[in-house]
Amino acid sequence: MKRYCFRSYCLHRFLVTAFNYTEENSLTGAWKSQDGDNTYTVTFQDGYLSYSSFNIPAKKFIRSFGGSYKISGNTIIVKGEFDSQLAETIGTEYKFVYTFKNKKLTAQIGEAKKWDRVDNGMEGLAGNWRISGRLLNNQMEQVPLRARRTLKLLSATRFQWMAINIETKEFLGTGGGTYTLKDGKYTETIEFFSRDSSRVGASLSFDYSLKEGVWIHQGLSSKGAPIYEEWSRLK
């Protein structure tokens, strides 16, 4: 696996060294909580938060919400951009008080309060990405950033895409799970999918590369249709 050091991550590593930051006081990356068959995940990456709850054995999607966030003292302040259940939260700020103890995160986010770290968000394709181009009818079509957008938030091991509209407050769909990178292949294993539960458990592999900060994503969809997409970091 290649290791990429983008500007924000290089700065983070510098801060860790210079100020003796530890895992206990860094939220960056993916976190997980479990209650029976219900799984809860929250990812903090590039100033963006996504929370999801789902049940893998039942192939059931429960809820997802998120948006940009900042830290003030021991409080996570989120500006909502999507919510599969509560559209009224979009455009508003809401807060989560959090603590670290024994490498555990405690914060009442969604249905869960106690969180275990999954990864520190420092490897792979970790970042907040938006689709910025796609190949249609053999022609490359640029996708400008609009209110209606498709994002893909990745930690070092987890991914989630979300199709949202921050103006109309529409939630158009989401899906996520784990991913791996090996020998130029990006492979997703789906753990939840709001629009098609039959996809849960499936794995899809795509060719990937990074060119001048743009993630090139190409291969075949689950239906066999060719895909060529470009993803850029959401500023």
Question: What secondary-structure arrangement, pairings included, does this model have?
Answer:
Blueprint: H1 7-18, E1 29-35, E2 38-45, E3 48-55, E4 60-72, E5 75-83, E6 93-97, E7 99-101, E8 104-109, E9 112-119, E10 127-136, E11 139-142, E12 148-154, E13 158-165, E14 171-182, E15 185-193, E16 203-211, E17 214-220, E18 226-233
Antiparallel strand pairs: 1-2, 1-9, 2-3, 3-4, 4-5, 5-6, 7-8, 8-9, 10-11, 10-12, 10-18, 12-13, 13-14, 14-15, 15-16, 16-17, 17-18
Oligomerization category of the chains in this entry: single chain
The CATH class assignment of the largest domain is Mainly Beta
> What is the 3D shape?
globular
Which architecture of the largest domain does the CATH hierarchy give at level 2? Beta Barrel
> What number of structural domains do the residues give?
2
Question: What descriptive keywords fit this protein?
Answer:
235 residues; mainly beta; Lipocalin; 2 domains; globular
Q: Can you describe what's shown?
A:
The protein has 2 domains: 7-15 and 26-119, Lipocalin (Beta Barrel), CATH 2.40.128.360; 127-233, Lipocalin (Beta Barrel), CATH 2.40.128.490. The model is unreliable at 1-25 (pLDDT under 50). With 235 residues, it is mainly beta. Helices cover 5% and strands 60% of the residues. The strands form 2 sheets. It has a 9-stranded antiparallel beta sheet, with no helix packed on it. It contains 1 helix and 18 strands. The longest helix has 12 residues, at 7-18. It is globular, with a radius of gyration of 17 Å.
